Amino acid sequence: MKAVTFDGTNVAVSDVDLAEPRHGEVRVQVSAAGVCHSDLHVIRGEWAVPLPLVMGHEGSGIVDAVGEGVTTLSVGDHVVLSWVPNCGKCRYCLLGRPAQCELVASVVAPNGVLYDGTSRLSKDGKPIHHYLGVSSFAEMVVVPESGAIKVRSDAPLDVIALVGCAVATGVGAVRNTAHFVPGSTAAVIGCGGVGLSVIQGARLEKASAILAVDVAADKLELAQKLGATHTLLVTPGMNVPEAMKAIIPEGLDYVFDAIGKIMTTEQSIQALGLGGSAVVVGLPPTGQSAQFDPLVLAEADQRILGCNYGSTVPQRDIPRLVDELMSGDLDLESMISARRPLDEAESALADLNSGAALRQLLLP
């Protein structure tokens, strides 16, 4: 099959071999794959990943083969791919926190393999690693059964690719991580795919005010379309936390950092109102540290919350999000800036890196 590989230096479309699904695995014909900032972290060398690998962790498609022992999926099912193919048996899964699945955290993600410690991907007889158990920049994928979430068959197969990462993370950050209280105020720093999903999540959870913060006027315009009630265009030298407080003088109950730079994380903490929660949604490079004043945090009864995958329970949340798309409560089409063939993956990543694109779909 055709797949987008990365060897530490080059992004290339390559001919890659894909083995048959083993016990508890399914093969999915990929309909669409979303291009995400997490993919940029990989090619920038900001995250340690095993190489070479097939890129991509957001996608959707149709099941076309099932391995032995698969009970929840059948050939022909429409699925959204999840980059947390939770085992369902470890301590965190049993506590209802599959985003922290021990098998994913200790085997799948760091080692670039599936449950049994091996890869289904190879080229010229040499193994190629999976990326986050998905590798969706390809014509097909083999994933654990729990990494393919069955959804309704009338949903548009290309659009629902976004649910697998950006939308699950953004809406989940509001619902699951923050436990958003209706009537609260919110701000979102960064209006890319995840940030726009946070804005939609805050709208769905009935925020009284939603402040969108970004350096790009066109992204703020889209943020208003998707639910933001106020916007802040960041300019050089601006004191962003003070500007945010001036726009929402009653105080910000939740501030979501959807970028993941140290600067924006610190800004999200500094902008909080009394009793507020800063939710770190965007992922920074490995090994960086942010600063905050713990006395201020304690006296103001504030919280800093880490958000991995929107604290999502994939089997519960992903079908719900697809239902909300189909009911018109979620607007995902507006978040898609381009649909491109697989061989334009490198250009799509460059456009994302430059800030010229929102969510782009690769269509194998």
Give your account of this protein's structure:
- The protein has two domains: 2-164 and 331-363, Quinone Oxidoreductase, Chain A, domain 1; 167-309, Rossmann fold (3-Layer(aba) Sandwich).
- The protein has eleven helices and 19 strands.
- With 364 residues, the protein is α/β, with parallel strands linked by helices.
- It has helices at residues 37-43, 91-94, 102-111, 166-177, 193-204, 217-226, 240-247, 262-270, 294-299, 314-327, 345-354, and strands at 2-6, 11-15, 17-18, 25-35, 53-54, 58-66, 78-81, 121-123, 126-128, 140-144, 148-150, 185-189, 209-214, 230-233, 254-257, 277-280, 303-306, 336-341, 359-363.
- Strands 4, 6, 7, 10, 11, 18 and 19 form a seven-stranded mixed beta sheet that branches. A six-stranded parallel beta sheet has the order 14-13-12-15-16-17, with helices on both faces. A three-stranded antiparallel beta sheet has the order 2-1-5, with no helix packed on it.
- The protein is globular and about 60 Å long.
- 28% of the residues lie in helices and 25% in strands.
